[in-house]
Hints:
- The chain is mainly alpha-helical and 78 residues long.
- The chain has a domain at 41-69.
- It is built from three helices and no strands.
- It has helices at residues 13-18, 42-54, 60-69.
Amino acid sequence: MGNQDNYQKGKHPNSLANLTSHEGRPQQYKSKKERRSVSVTPEGWEGIGKLAEQYGCSSKSELLEKLGRGIIKLQVSA
């Protein structure tokens, strides 16, 4: 199986290198994010994912944040 080193759980150097802080990802905005819940159909959720990708967002959460802050503007078509 190749060269395997034995590390205690949670002590592998690769795992430790991935940790940025105890708070998770660095904050982009001054206020801390809070967990929310939304109800969306599977088709709607898939569409949100496509929109996030289209607008260069790394996640659906980032898309919603930018929409809510007015960074990404909605344009309603008739």
